[in-house]
Fold this protein.
Amino acid sequence: MERGIDDKNILDKFAEKFCKIAEKHLKYIVVSGFVAISHGRRRTTEDIDMIVERISFEKFKKFHNELIKNGFICMQSSKVEDVYDYLDNGDSVRYVEREDLQPPEMEVKFVKDEIDALQMETRKKLELTGMDIWFSSIEFNIAFKEELLKTPKDMEDAKHLRIIYKEEIDNNFIEFVKNKIRELRLKNEG
Amino acid sequence: MRDKSHMESVERWAEFVRNNPKSKWKKYVNLLIDSTYQKADEFYKKLEETEKGREILKRLSEERKSRANSFLVR
């Protein structure tokens, strides 16, 4: 494979570049698949999921403009007002770095409830990943994968993280998060 | 869980595959697959450097062995 100038893989380069800009403008966390992949799960992903704090349009505009200035493109719209509307309505928006709009993509969404707010409060830099990125805690990732997402891929991700962090995981906290998921995300589902 | 931007993204990629030769779209797929494998290799190499990391590697290896055994028993 052709390697980059600094010898980092394209996913890491993309994620770190995006997060470095995000860090200057708002509080964010990277969640889900990229957390597992950053811990050695041998599977692919097209997108990296990011949750950001809810900010005003003016603040978002500065963040968005800096992303654009640094070569990122928003797939949903080139108008920042439209992009903000997406986020404000609870939808996610996607940024790519390539002019041909191909992956990897950063999927960005606003904090939507108490669970996301708590994920944000308890965010961590995970030393084992070797990345200077804020992640949601391992407990949160396991709880979401085992209680909400539940696909075979997610269950394998959760198991992988449980093995890696066997001695450090707070199982009571995972149960607490699972209860919150049942209460806030699953209560309206059959 | 997946919202409309995810489906839009799936559709966009499918259109790209439909409208371009395999030699073109395969490059993107390979780039992503290679980078995730490269990322995993880097992670495991880093684990080998510390006591804690070697302990994790041991646990992962035991898990793989027990999974392989469970297939053999079936």
Q: What stands out?
A: Chain A has a mean pLDDT of 92. The first helix of chain A runs from residue 10 to 25. The beta strands of chain A are 28-31, 47-52, 73-74, 93-96, 105-110, 124-125, 134-135. DSSP finds eight helices and seven strands in chain A.
